[in-house]
Amino acid sequence: MAQPKYSLEEYGSFKDKLYPIIKVHFTDGPHDDMVDIIFTEEDEPIHTEIAGDLFVYYGIDRGENFELLKRNDIPKSITDSTLLATSIANLDNILDGKIRISNTTFKTKMIICGYNWEASTILLDWIWDEQIDTLGDNLVVAIPSKDLLFFTLQSDKSGIESMKKEISNVHSDGEYLLSKKLFLVTKKSIVEYKE
User: Fold this and answer.
1) What ranges do the domains of the chain cover?
2) What pTM value is reported for the model?
3) Nearest to 145 by CA among 173, 127, 121, 170
């Protein structure tokens, strides 16, 4: 087996620049505008399922771009759970004091934090625990693109319908598209929302 691209010491030098990158795995059939890329197990970017079609990848901030970590980039002693915890802690640090909750024009709420990190805030448990405590109900969340995250109460059927319409609007002409699905967020989990 080949040596990893980065040693444990090199990983230590960039781990503070490791962030969670939210991506979608399409499961609803072929997409004409997508190219199928087949990776070997070792060359595949490391990713962890969040819920439904949402996955988190691990990107090293290289200034101009993000380098997605692959299995053969790091020593096997660095686990997926370590990458997840490290990247979430780094996200929390970079967004410290920048996260705002705002009302949308379609009567739900949204997260605003800048830097196109809105989708990644789905991983910050403290936000969701705080909102559930404040609002008194579980939440239904939409993440139609990397810079948009909407949410409403699970009991707000009108708000859920509004988010579905907004997902369609975003996907008709938006950029950096992610999921067309809704997600149920509780204090213990994130799952695909089913009516």
Assistant:
1) 8-94, 100-192
2) 0.90
3) 170
CA distance 58 to 48: 9
Q: CA triplet 72, 77, 78: central angle to 5 degrees?
A: 70
Give the angle 134-108-51 at the CA atoms, nearest 5°.
Answer: 80
CA dihedral of residues 57, 65, 78, 87 (deg, nearest 10): -60
Dump pLDDT digits (tens) for 153-174.
999 999 999 999 999 999 999 8
- In terms of Cα–Cα distance, which of 24, 20, 21, 18 is closest to 142? 24
Q: How far apart are CA 186 and CA 178, in angstroms?
A: 21
pLDDT in tens, 80-129: 999 999 999 999 999 999 999 999 999 999 999 988 899 999 999 999 99
Distance between terminal CA atoms of the chain?
47
Two tokens, residue 74: 């790091």
Q: For 107, which DSSP code?
A: S
Cβ count near 140 (within 10 Å): 24
